[in-house]
Amino acid sequence: MQDDMMDLSRLNDSEREILRLLAQGHTAKSAADLTGRSVGSVNERLRDARRKTGASSSRALSRAFVARENRDDLSGSPPPTLPRQTCPKRSDHPGPRCFEELP
């Protein structure tokens, strides 16, 4: 399916968050670590997003999603509201890709 034909408006906040991380090069495992979800939950969000949009792959969908967001930013559309994220407080800390704790 062409990027312009995907209905990205049907995606919920969790699916959008995971797609942004995927577009940044994260794997399902590292996205799970960063968001505090299980890998299974991340994969479920990706499956739901593919089903809603008709995309054949999560990577292609993530690229299309970020491209659409960037295009919207350039057109003057207001940016989406995102929840603040913090580093997981665990001994298996994911390292430098982790979000810094926000006040």
Give the arrangement of secondary structure elements.
Elements: H1 13-23, H2 28-35, H3 39-53, H4 58-74
Helix pairs in contact: 1-3, 1-4, 2-3
User: Oligomerization state of this entry?
Assistant: single chain
Contiguous runs where pLDDT drops below 50 for at least 5 residues = none
Strand tally is 0
What is the average of the pLDDT values?
A: 79
The CATH class of the domain at 3-74, by name, is Mainly Alpha
Q: Approximately how much helix is present in the residues? A: 40-55%
The chain-level structural class is: mainly alpha
Q: Could you say what the CATH architecture of the domain at 3-74 is?
A: Orthogonal Bundle
The proportion of strand residues reads under 5%
CATH topology heading of the domain at 3-74: Arc Repressor Mutant, subunit A
Count, helices: 4
The radius of gyration over CA amounts to 14 Å
Characterize the main sheet: none
Distance from first to last alpha carbon: 41 Å
Q: CATH H-level name of the domain at 3-74... which superfamily?
A: Winged helix-like DNA-binding domain superfamily/Winged helix DNA-binding domain
Order of helices and strands: HHHH
What would the principal axes of the Cα set say about the shape?
Answer: globular
